[in-house]
Amino acid sequence: MSAADILSWSTLIALIILGLALLISVIRIIIGPTLGDRVLALDLMTVIAMGLVGTIAVRTGLMLYLDIAIALALLGFLATVALARYILSRAATPPDDAP
Fold first, then answer.
1. pLDDT at 98
2. Are 42 and 79 in contact (CB under 8 A)?
3. How many other C-beta atoms lie within 10 A of the C-beta of residue 18?
4. What pLDDT does residue 27 have?
5. In sequence order, which residues have a C-beta less than 8 Å from that of residue 59 and are 6 or more positions away?
6. Would you list the domain boundaries of the chain?
7. Full-model pTM
8. Residues 46 and 76: beta-carbon distance below 8 Å
């Protein structure tokens, strides 16, 4: 078994595991009981997607995919910060039915 075969098999296994993790995080977004759980699952999904893009970069040998992973990391960070600010502003305002 050559090094290329080992790399091919290991990246295939990594893609399968990351795909299953992505599916589990999507399920957590759907059934998450609170908004915080959903935000955390969305952040996890961003990290898993970065892992998928990185694994594809290793598998194909095209390092252009790493730029995509960096952009995805920035987008995920900004989305998490925006959702956290939304949660904080929602908690600071009193409900409409308060006297």
1. 57
2. yes
3. 20
4. 95
5. 7, 8, 11, 12, 15
6. 3-90
7. 0.84
8. yes
